[in-house]
Amino acid sequence: MPVKSAVLGYPRVGINRAQKKATEAYWAGKISEQELQTASQAVRKSRWEAIKAAGVDIIPSGDFTLYDGLLDHSFNFNVVPERFTKQGLSPIDTYFAMGRGRQDRAKGIDVAANEMGKFFDSNYHIVKVDHAPNTEFKLVRNQWLEEYKEAKDLGIETRPVLFGPITYLALVRASRDAPSDFQPLDLIDKLVPIYVEVLKSLKEAGAQYVQLDEPILVTDKAEAYGDIYKKVYAELATAEIPITLTTAYGRVGKSLDYLKDLPIASLHLDLNREPEQLDAALDALKPSGKGIELGLISGRNIWKNDLAASKKLAEKAVAALGADKVVVSTSSSLLHTPLSLKVETKLTPEQVAWLAFADEKCEEVATLAAALNGEENEAFKKNTKDIAARREFETTSDSAVRDRVQAITPEMSKRKSDFSVRSKVQAEAIKLPKFPTTTIGSFPQTKEIRVARAKFGKGELTKEQYEKAMEDEIKSVVDIQERLDLDLLVHGEPERNDMVQYFGELLNGFIFTQLGWVQSYGSRYVRPPIVVSDISRPAPMTVRWSSYAQSVSKKPMKGMLTGPVTILNWSFPRADVSKEIQAKQLALALRDEVVDLANAGISAIQVDEPAIREGLPLRKEDWDAYLNWAVESFRLSTSGVEDKTQIHSHFCYSDFDDIFPHIQALDADVISIEASKADLKLLDTFKAYGYKNDIGPGVYDIHSPRVPSEQEIKDKLTAFVKVIPAERLVVNPDCGLKTRAWKETEESLTNLVNAAKWARENL
Ligand code: GLN
Ligand code: ZN
């Protein structure tokens, strides 16, 4: 039997973003549920056909979703919290409400979504439904059987995909009302029979195998899961359908000791990120005659795979286990990659030849399997040529940038004086009142702003006209802030399409796709820039806008930049150079911008790092290495200025427990953090840690249009000063205001300013 090829999962977006459009049209009431289902069916068909056309042997089914795959499991298992069931919604609307909440005042419906959480270290977000000790499971919808049959009717044999039961329970949420020692994994005995039921139904329908995704196995905590895995998989084996257990996003480490003994047909490993785990796995799997599925083609990056190198690794597996025990596959689902390169008309042929999106990755697994089976076909030869050309390109470097990174000294990452000294110099220079008020940077991105940008993009506005439109907007935003009597102003960021793309477009070293959409959550897609070469700043990027803003106000202005770690984490990084080096190149470019802003008379500069925490490696033993360069990069970008410049940073989260020393080490003069959890417990931990610098715990949640009352904000500030010294507190919303409308923005900020004024007198 020859080596086979497989793909673990595929983007849900559909050709021309058909799925996103249909879903949003349904939400807007423009199409019926039936029309949405018809559109979705067409998307599923196109996915299977694309994978099949690429020549892949093992095609996934059941990985399609209207919102999120983990949510689908909860919904199918009938885990629907009461606040949703009591709204009287149809099943599909209940499902969507669980993902995105639902508010319909006229009908008296007001229900908040389930919590969203980041999926491993990717930018994809899962919906985490509440589970409690009394949660019961019931298979109310067998989506996997439905999709298996749907594909079969189209003449396509597939491998159904489910989250493994342990990963499922490890990812969902424990209800707030549950006893504190309860964890969803306690429910495993109740859940496993549902899985057995699904697996049996698939076997009966003719499925030859099933894929159970257990990425939780690449985390530290899974090392203690040996007993539970053995017990659960023994039960699943009673369904008598061969199971491929997949891991992704990292290494299984010590868990291999028990994985090798599970009654599964084969084990999938992420060999793209962690090729070193192959040898141990082959030794471990050999005695039991299990198969291995080699996750060689990255599901996370967009680079063409070096098939000759992958073939060498795969040959080791073939030699050890025999060809019939080896499948070549993707390292994870392809959901993290854009759909297809074919639609990219603006990339040069040279650039196209560097890259592989989902469709091209499907071709890669098929080509690799063919090569292992003795057929080094044209596609394989072209790959070898393309890789050689990319390697050639990768040797071209910007020596000025490389030299500059080489020449970084420790002094460059240190401010001139300590915070205690700086803060006095800044108080003198900027003259902010106690409880200073400020915002996080962006103001509402109105339709007019987006229209102007689109027109400029199409050439319907000249550069002068566009810049004038932006200046008018900035002037108006500054006027409004003056009228509201905010203390530290911002220009409002109207010129930015996105906080990462905007900088990528102004820096050397990035390329952009036109349709490279990647799912972030639900129907939300982002289009990450791609780092292809050394990064440098050909010219100042934001100085003209911040200077203009300062020129129309006497109040101090805060400049606004996206930090090096966040730009990198929200882009596709290059694979030939370490992330550390890329972050430092970015840091040096931003450092020049920070210095230019300061020289232009901008008194405070905020360098946003909302993604520092999400870039944390999955294994704790890898944290220090990451945090060291991440923190150094931030410091490098912000330490080129005199003491009098106040450096701010902003984080879109409030979960700092494990990384306090590193947050302190950033040494920003002011940090602002998210509100929803910026409760006293959080501030207590800041106090307990002994955090020294200034801090602006968001006083209200900007993610909802709700206007916080003045009293609410006063209450927050009253509570805050009990834990954080009043002179260290800054008063701000918890994130940028770009997604809000002006009405609620003005009302909220009015209350915020009044509360701060009250605090100055009373706290
Ligand atoms: N300065 C950015 C803004 O205000 C920060 C956005 C973010 O933290 N995600 O929009
Ligand atoms: Zn934020």
UniProtKB/TrEMBL annotation:
Gene3D superfamilies assigned: 3.20.20.210
Stretches assigned to the Cobalamin-independent methionine synthase MetE C-terminal/archaeal domain: 435-757
Positions annotated as active site in the UniProt record: 703
Cofactor: Zn(2+)
Chain ranges of the Cobalamin-independent methionine synthase MetE N-terminal domain: 5-317
Residues where 5-methyltetrahydropteroyltri-L-glutamate binds: 20, 123, 570
Amino acids binding Zn(2+): 650, 652, 674, 735
Residues holding L-methionine: 440-442, 493, 608
Cofactor stoichiometry and binding remark: Binds 2 Zn(2+) ions per subunit.
Pathway: Amino-acid biosynthesis; L-methionine biosynthesis via de novo pathway; L-methionine from L-homocysteine (MetE route): step 1/1
Family per record: Belongs to the vitamin-B12 independent methionine synthase family.
HAMAP family listed in its UniProt record: Meth_synth (MF_00172)
Function recorded in the entry: Catalyzes the transfer of a methyl group from 5-methyltetrahydrofolate to homocysteine resulting in methionine formation.
PANTHER family: 5-METHYLTETRAHYDROPTEROYLTRIGLUTAMATE--HOMOCYSTEINE METHYLTRANSFERASE
Protein name: 5-methyltetrahydropteroyltriglutamate--homocysteine S-methyltransferase
Organism per entry: Cutaneotrichosporon spelunceum
Lineage, uppermost ranks: Eukaryota, Fungi, Dikarya, Basidiomycota, Agaricomycotina
